[in-house]
Amino acid sequence: MQISLENKFLKDWSPSREVNFYPPSQGPLAVYGKSQFFDTINYAVDAFQRLDTSIGSFYHVNEDSPVLNFCLTEYAKGEVWGSNQSYIFNPRRVVDCMEISVPPAPRNGTPPLSELLKGIEDERDVARVEAFVLAMGAEKRRPPEEERDVAPFHFDLKSFLLEINKTLNFDALLRADLSFTIKTVNFRRALPMDRPDCYQMAITISLDNEDHDGQVMITLTAVPMIVKCCVDSIYIGNAHDQADMILRSFLNFVVITICTLSFILCTRAMYRAWLLKERVNTFFRRCRGKQLCLADQCEFLNLWYVMITANDCLIIAGSTIKQLIEYRNVVHRESECRKNPRSDSSAQGRVNPFTLPQQRIEGDLWDVCGVLLGTGNLLVWIGVLRYLGFFRKYNILIITLKRAFPNVLRFLLCVIILYAGFTLCGWLVLGPYHLKT
């Protein structure tokens, strides 16, 4: 989605930038003239107003009065006279933010009922769709094409700044940020019974002039935040998806149960080993007048059990997160939106993307789940070496690795020290000539 947003809102964006090459085939996206600076902002505002032209399902948060935030970060004073190379400079930073209102885009409304009922055979689903159309209201019917034609909108930053008596001083300008929020519904289906997700995208287009070298870098950042979909939403599933999801949940619970039993048994074994160590230590203290040294006490600790308990914890946590994500997709998520969501547009209001909560989205949870399950799986396969030790020939190899492990660590420490020295030397000597700098 990042690429589609950059293609939508960034002027002069080319398909060659969608593939990362090293060294890059072209320089960074930047502007070098004042007219290019204004054209970039004008293009982004116009694209925001015309969200309905995108293939993606992008919509304004406030459909009645879409708003953008335009912030200028400048030095408190920055004047340059090139004739005699004199200047007035105050390094204190000042941030000035202003709102840009654009006219609402044409509304498509609700398609005809016959179009919505195409491909739906279950009578219960038909009744749900009919109730949905009735709840949406007759005023949201799709108007004819000729009624949706409106005069084109073109934003002009120069005129806007002139109206608010704002002068843009490029000598003092540090950065300009154009921020806005859009909403979207993701219909991508990754798993059975995977319901569509509703998102708000906090988008910021930054024009960075921190270096004051005549090159203003352009970047677009999009922060997705998952929100609850409207209660009026309808999901039409099938029996095959339901059976597949039940099988997945059953497998998750089986894995969690087995790992829990393994964790309990290994913990009990380590606890009994600790009790045995205490009894032996007490015996030596009473009968021999001395205690076991630390190395002898560590002989009672089975490191294989420690590793097994660690991978059990990782797999239990990963499987639990996986089940929660899949269960979230099955449960119908209701929100407090009204029957007519457009009447709530003013309540959603003018959202500042910098004040939206940074919620953990499903993609981040999948990353955490993958790390937990992957690490746990790695430890499980390492634990298989324990059973190879039951064979005489394999046991010799494992004992050799165990004895050589401290020396291998010493060798790695020496290698890391040498590598760090060469790395820091190369960074200091060759770093200023690197392409990325």
TrEMBL record:
Pfam families: MCLN_ECD. GO terms for molecular function: NAADP-sensitive calcium-release channel activity. Residues 3-103, 164-229 form the Mucolipin extracytosolic domain. One of its GO terms (cellular component) is plasma membrane. Transmembrane segments: none annotated. It comes from the Eukaryota. This is Mucolipin extracytosolic domain-containing protein. It comes from Cyprideis torosa. The lineage of its organism: Eukaryota, Metazoa, Ecdysozoa, Arthropoda, Crustacea.
